[in-house]
Amino acid sequence: EVQLVESGGGLVQAGGSLTLSCTASGVTFDDYAIGWFRQAPGKEREGVSCFSSHRGAFYEDFAQGRFTISSDNAKNAVYLQMNSLTPEDTAVYYCAAVRGHCGDFGPWYYGQGTRVTVSS
Fold first, then answer.
1. What are the angstrom distances between the C-alpha of 59 and each of 63, 70, 110?
2. Closest CA to 95 of 17, 39, 56
C-alpha cells in the first residue's frame, strides 16, 4: 500500500523559506516518480515539481529558480525547499507518487497535504 505523509508547512512571511518533507512507504524511488502539487483557495490543483531517479527533476515555471526538489533514498523521503516565497504560494501542498515517470497519467497516490501560508 502506498502511503505518503507530508510535513513542514506553516506560516511564513513573504521572502521567507520553508522546506516540505514527504515520507513515502510502499514505493521505491527506482520505480516511482514523486511529485509535489498544490491547491490554493478557490483554485484547481496544480503541479509544482516532480522527481524521478531515471529522468531527474522537473519544475513548473513559477517554481523554477525558487524551489528545489530532492530525495533521501535512505529515508525514503522527498523534500521541497521553497525560497523567496510570495503570498501567491499560499496553498495546501501535496506529495504524490506515480509508478513510472513524471508526466505519466497515473494512478497518482496523494498524501493528506500540508498547508503553507505566506503573509505579506
1. 6, 12, 18
2. 39
Q: For the segment 96-114, what is each residue's pLDDT rounded down to a tens digit? A: 999 999 988 889 999 999 9
- In a 13 Å sphere around the CA of 53, the CA atoms on its Cβ side amount to 15
Which pLDDT tens digit goes with each residue over 12-51?
999 999 999 999 999 999 999 999 999 999 999 999 999 9
Side chain identity at 120, as an amino acid letter? S
Cα–Cα distance between 45 and 57 in angstroms, integer? 19
Q: Any residues with CB less than 8 A from the CB of 45 and at least 6 apart, and which? A: 37, 38, 39, 94
